[in-house]
């Protein structure tokens, strides 16, 4: 941290790079930039890579639903920053190049940002730190690396061991107050590159932005649904069967610590309600778990063999992949789930388990392609959870039962007993 007695006399700005922390409430990395006393230049960058296709595949990284949700989120962040007395600069291109250029043109003192742990994000951080003074702070997890009782290289391989080590820390979780004032830097006389005009899209299943995130959080808690989460979490559809908070958690317009605190404050009238809230909290611990796996094993989570030593029996079978992604496998439940995903950008937790199993273990198609298809379509895509879960379900991750299988007929009888879900998504209008 800078010596504020010295820097208060300096007018150089600090650039704040918004990444997956698109909010002003409980934002640790942004909060660390404020005590320096320097004006802040908030920046968000639409990465050119998002519109490029995956290797060997014919689709880009972000589909319409994800793009619309992100655009709404950025527009809402723009408004929140305006209310805080500042202006969000929005660009499109290569983040490292743009930030280096801004750093020089603004004669900035430093760049602050939330720390990330996936391969491309690490490369960005490494490239940027060679050129600028870069300060990174964890902000997307419940339990930060300096809080957990293990080093990254000793992070537990299996989820249960991880949960048992970090769960006691939940009573110590704290949040940071919402930032209501961002000191502004006058960059109007600086020759900056052209800013990006954010498109406005029709709202999909979820409305993007911090405002909508906090509204949804309040509505979910007020509904009492967390008390029934254990009963509803495996349903395929229904009102409040899921928290439906994952989209906002994924791009950081909702703080996971804020959600944890709200769950901790829910009145627990009976043991069943306590168990349900506990089960929901454990889903949040899974988010941390996959981040720690990424920190420990790095790019291995993107390899075909994943975290296992043996080569998998999977193939780059385009024909099988295409019938899966289009919902034309002939398996009614799988097809219904895949069509729901394509239309809405959403799929239930139980559904994700079933379709990933079917692609990787029944069709024996490269699981990385399935993860890429989810990345393309899911509004709530999170690189850590997506690739961690796909590796797990395909037997290439940390499932102790690597050949775990599902009987799809029994799954349909249990979770869609009347066939209503399948009919909704497979009946032609």
What does this structure look like?
The chain has 429 residues and is an alpha/beta fold. The chain has helices at residues 4-7, 28-33, 64-83, 95-105, 119-129, 159-166, 210-223, 229-232, 246-250, 256-264, 271-297, 318-325, 332-344, 349-362, 367-377, 383-393, 408-415, 420-426; strands spanning 14-18, 40-47, 89-93, 110-114, 134-137. A five-stranded parallel beta sheet has the order 3-2-1-4-5.
Descriptive terms for the model:
about 425 residues; alpha/beta; five-stranded parallel beta sheet; globular; disordered N terminus
The number of helices is 18
Over the alpha carbons, how many angstroms does the gyration radius reach?
22 Å
The helix/strand series, from N terminus to C terminus, equals HEHEHEHEHEHHHHHHHHHHHHH
Structural class: alpha/beta
For this structure, the quaternary state is single chain
Secondary structure: helix percent:
40-55%
Main beta sheet: strand number and arrangement?
A: 5 strands, parallel
Mean pLDDT: 94
Measured by DSSP, the beta-strand proportion falls in 5-15%
Order of strands across the widest beta sheet?
3-2-1-4-5
> Overall 3D geometry?
globular
Extract low-pLDDT stretches: 1-9
> What is the strand tally?
5
Per-chain topology:
Layout (H helix, E strand, L loop, with lengths): L3 H4 L6 E5 L9 H6 L6 E8 L16 H20 L5 E5 L1 H11 L4 E5 L4 H11 L4 E4 L21 H8 L43 H14 L5 H4 L13 H5 L5 H9 L6 H27 L20 H8 L6 H13 L4 H14 L4 H11 L5 H11 L14 H8 L4 H7 L3
Parallel strand pairs: 1-2, 1-4, 2-3, 4-5
Helix pairs in contact: 4-5, 6-11, 11-16, 13-18, 15-16
